[in-house]
Specification:
Rossmann fold; four-stranded mixed sheet; binds iron/sulfur cluster; 31% helix; globular; Fe-only Hydrogenase (Larger Subunit), Chain L, domain 3; alpha/beta; four-stranded parallel sheet; Alpha-Beta Plaits
């Protein structure tokens, strides 16, 4: 790993993905999937990752036919140790895309929805559950409301209620940490365009260590939060030093028992990591009985669920914005123009802002697979010619469902991945 990394804050994991030199065949396959050209090395020679250009998205890892890229952060054993500690409440925060992918690691058909079995397996392992879909609902309320504030400011000159600065349009989604890192490192002038809403994972961690203390009857210091994500970049996101909002809140309210800030998310496991954890604990997810989440923190709406796919965040945000502005539900609720796998999807929504009694048109765009699709949209925004008011960006092709932390074999993430078992260099 490049220890001289310059684009990371103190405390952050300086690059979640590295390439094992002894396994790399120099075949160049990974370069085609890298959104930033972070992989160097000539054809036939050992390749390596430039951590300052890397987004930690893991697309090289799931698309390498030789299993050479690996995650530098592996905390499966640490989580098992916490699960065995009776003084610690371990909260598993499960992202939407995990429940439709983990089944195949236990012999179930690819795409099986196993929410009940996943809850059952996690409870058997000793986790309490906070469903990240619950937090996705929180994110979308924040992000949808923020969009309304920005749009009313731009169209009607409305000021912020508390005198806070209002960000420009277009508003970009901010729940994909690979995308956020791309903006921070390559397009810093667009940082104000990113939604100020934290990602569902980070909202979930804050909720677990504040409201969750009442749900589980433990102080925040005794709660250990584990993001369970389809995503390797979420490991980097959780390590960002500014994400200690639960500590700050608890301290302000006299509830912090220590002067040492604790992170909102203690660690992150990918879908693959969780499979390994279950296997180490001899839990066969496929044979587990269905269980429920056990608290309000595992309740969620369909809007939270669709976050796992490209277009899901935009559709959920539009539903919220439409309902707040017009006082009515969006009909039909499924907003089909932002669904599907087209590289850049766009749509216009006409709606009446009842507060101003005026009809407005909102132009939205949805981008996935940054490696192929982001450049023209960014160029338009940078040149001030963008027709869009709200843009969703997800790094991975198809969205988080095809994230860098998902099972590698047979999930359709890569035909190269599918032939990987044929090789001895696994
Ligand atoms: S795809 Fe894998 S083997 Fe091929 S160059 Fe990249 S890391 Fe090396
Ligand atoms: S993790 Fe993503 S950004 Fe980093 S080298 Fe791999 S494909 Fe490129
Ligand atoms: S699209 Fe999803 S899985 Fe991929 S980097 Fe972004 S948050 Fe992670």
């Amino acid at each position: 790993m490049n220890v001289a990394a310059k684009t990371y804050q103190k405390g952050e994991i300086p690059g979640v993905i590295a390439i094992k030199a002894s396994a790399c065949k120099g075949c160049d396959a990974c370069k085609r999937h890298c959104p930033t050209g972070a992989i160097t090395g000539s054809f036939g020679a050992t390749h390596s990752v430039d951590v300052d250009s890397c987004l930690s998205c893991g697309q090289c890892l799931i698309n390498c036919p030789f299993g050479a890229p690996y995650e530098t952060s592996d905390t499966v054993d640490e989580v098992i140790a916490r699960l065995k500690d009776r003084n610690t409440t371990v909260v598993g925060i499960i992202a939407p895309a995990v429940r439709v992918a983990i089944g195949e690691d236990f012999g179930l058909p690819a795409g099986s929805l196993v929410t009940g079995k996943l809850y059952g397996s996690m409870k058997k392992a000793g986790f309490e559950i906070l469903d990240n879909n619950f937090a996705a609902d929180l994110t979308i309320m924040e992000e949808g409301t923020e969009f309304i504030v920005r749009a009313r400011h731009a169209v009607f000159g409305e000021k912020s209620e508390h005198g806070a600065e209002i960000g420009p349009l277009p508003q970009f989604t901010s729940c994909c940490p690979a995308w956020v890192r791309l903006v921070e490192t390559k397009y810093p002038t667009l940082i104000p365009n990113l939604s100020s809403a934290k990602s569902p994972q980070q909202m979930a961690g804050t909720v677990a260590k504040t409201y969750g203390t009442k749900v589980w009857g433990k102080s925040a210091e005794k709660i250990y939060t584990v993001g369970i994500m389809p995503c390797t970049a979420k490991k980097l996101e959780a390590s960002r030093p500014e994400f200690n909002n639960a500590y700050e809140y608890n301290k302000k309210n006299g509830r912090a028992l220590t002067d040492k800030p604790y992170p909102d998310i203690d660690t992150v496991l990918t879908t693959r990591d969780l499979s390994r954890l279950f296997k180490k604990l001899k839990i066969n997810l496929a044979a587990e009985k269905d269980a429920d989440g056990g608290s309000l923190l595992a309740d969620y709406t369909g809007a939270g669920t669709i976050f796992g796919n490209t277009g899901g965040v935009m559709e959920a945000a539009l539903r919220t914005a439409y309902a707040v502005l017009t006082g009515e539900e969006l009909k039909p609720l499924e907003f089909k123009p932002v669904r599907g796998l087209k590289g850049v999807k766009s749509a216009s929504v006409k709606l009446k802002d009842t507060k101003y009694n005026k009809e407005v048109t909102v132009n939205v765009a949805v981008i996935h697979n940054i490696a192929e699709n982001i450049k023209p949209v960014i160029d338009e925004v940078l040149s001030g010619r963008s027709p869009y008011h709200f843009i969703e960006v997800m790094n991975c092709p198809g969205g988080c469902i095809n994230g860098g932390g998902q099972p590698i074999y047979g999930n359709g993430s890569s035909w190269l991945g599918a032939i990987r078992p044929l090789f001895a260099w696994k």
